[in-house]
Amino acid sequence: MKNKIFVPLLLVASSLLMAQNSTKLTLDEAIEKSLANSKAAKVSEAATSSAEWKSKSVKSNQLPDLNISGQYQQILSKGDTKLKMQLPTGAGTGMVNVNPDHVFMGTAGVSLPIYAGGQIINAIKQSNLAVDLSKLQTESTKEDVVWQTINLYFGIYKMQKTIDVLNENLVRANQRVKDFKNFLDNGIIPRNDYLRAKLQASNVQIAIDEATNNYENLNYRLNVLMGNTTNASYDIVDANALMMTEVSNNELTNRKDIQSVEKQAEIADQSIKIAKAAYYPQLAFTGNYYAVDIDQVASMINSVTVGLGLKYDLSSLYKNKHEVEYAKAKKVESEMQLEALKDKARIEINESHQKYTLAEKKNKVYLEALEQAAENYRIVKDKYDNGLADTDQLLEADVQQLQAEINKVVGDSDQALAGYEYLYMQGKLIENIK
Fold first, then answer.
1. What stretches of 281-434 show up as alpha helix (H) in DSSP?
2. The dihedral of CA 230, 231, 236, 237: what is its sign?
3. What letters, b where the CB count within 10 A reaches 16 and e where it falls short, cover 236-246?
4. Torsion of the alpha carbons at 234, 235, 241 and 247, rounded to the nearest 10
5. What phi and psi values does residue 90 have, to the nearest 5 degrees?
6. pTM for the full predicted model
7. Is the pLDDT of residue 8 over 50?
8. Given this structure, which CATH class describes domain 2-64+118-188+217-280+316-432?
């Protein structure tokens, strides 16, 4: 009688000690920490920042180009230097010997693009699309992080509850071993029945060890994902199933991967326009300032010119067609990739919905099976106590009850997880957990 009281108390004390060493964690807290500390999310955010700076750099091509230059050169070898110019009346004509000592030249110029075949404006549009694409990829990365967190969270919950069920069963198994030992010592049962009871207790202990190992592995991965420097143990406090909706006709509109490929197709379209811009001339407003002084020869100070500059690369008429065709091919590639991805998304969404429906049905069966297994064990145990059932029947009924309890725990977790997976496949995960 003392043993029957002591073993359950020992289990309760062990469970309380484990609870004291664990930190209670809600799903919202886990997601918040993962998003704040995920390395993948930070890399994606950094990529978005880079795209934004690149866009600003492209936009600066609309601004005028300003440049200044100057040089002073000392003439070391003067050679035969003569001034070829028409002298004033009475001074004679012909070439005049001069002896220049230095040359100074200073210039400043400004050039403002007026027309570049649409190259600048389309490059700006493309850079803006690249920023949008990067933001979509960041959102997709964050949704992936949330999905990883949910998977680990429910995995820990599943292991945690499984360990609880196994520990409860281990109490019965150990108590049965003690009872069978007494029966054996009194010659009531054969030694083989006692060994079977010990084997079942050992099997339950092995199952506990395996579940504990899985729990620790999942727990460690969650710690890494949340950015924890220590391997804290967590006690899952909520893992409820979601209320699901039917598949809608617009289930693809929220998929970030599809939106990203659509954005890539738009970028490819801009690449075609940029490539075609090389066929057109470039026109720019130009202005220049000159200051030139050649010692004893000529001087031109504060000279200003304004005008238009025209540049036309004629070789582009036969060289650029390959660039245009390459850009067109990339657009076709993006469009085909988009169609393939849509088909893949439809399959994933349909399968995830079917998976949730199946998990819901299985969970109902698990609940009925649990009730039936508990009742069956009660009946068999009563028969065994009255000598109407043998050890094999008792142990089999106990295993069936244990399996039913574990199935119900796993079923609850799988149903909830399947609900989150369905939202994830639709691209609606984050908006439904806020």
1. 316-319, 321-385, 391-426
2. negative
3. beebebbeeee
4. 0
5. 90, -10
6. 0.80
7. no
8. mainly alpha
